[in-house]
Amino acid sequence: MKLLALPAFSDNYIWMISDGTRALVVDPGDAAPVLKALQDQQLTLAAILVTHRHADHVAGLPQLRRILQGPVYGPRHEAIDGIDIVVGNGDTVHELGLTFEAWDTPGHTAGHVSYVALPAQGMPWPRRLVFCGDTLFSAGCGRIFDGTAEQLLHSLDRLADLPSDTWLCPTHEYTVSNLRFASAAEPGNPDVAQALEQSLALRARGEYTLPTTVARERLINPYLRCRQPTVVAQALKQGAPDASALSVFTTLRQWKNTFTA
Ligand SMILES: [Zn+2]
Asked: Distance between CA atoms of 201 and 184, rounded to whole angstroms?
């Protein structure tokens, strides 16, 4: 069994799990990298998981459905063409001998779901792996479209409560720019400084910074650190009305939208 990130566009990854003959992909915003990987590795496409409706996560569906030999799973509360089985909190998906729990993780969009893979023999993750779409990025989180800040904070807190060795697989490689923002949101955090240096070196070699882990995100992700005194102080300077986690989170998220390093 293998876990692969297929680069698509400039900063998208389409995650693929394969068992040597069959594959499953997550959020195929483009069919081409998936078709190429299937052909190169002589794999059939057994299933597709979709986290939310944005085009850079679903645009490859029509083309991939022509060769797909199983279902497309997607969020219950979003209108997406080409979903066969809708899922939400408490539903499980069984594909390639793996079990995924669907979690509602709204905030980026109101209907966003994540897929939490349970431990499985031969897979590299120790206890859990999460395909978290645009909910959590390394050192960052998605923008708020039709969800709310309260929803997104709750979704992020829920992911951060997973065991520390949980692997997190977001859809975008935004780590370096997120860490630049994290340096401003929490100046003096040595883990952020070290992660930025490490991520710059990885990207310079053309390597990925993902997957990340829950343990790492708890140390470097400012949106999971809304209760840290330094982060609170920075948010208050940026105009947060009070020191509550929700006010701090909302202020950080708005600040990031206009932040340039
Ligand atoms: Zn999105």
From this structure: 20
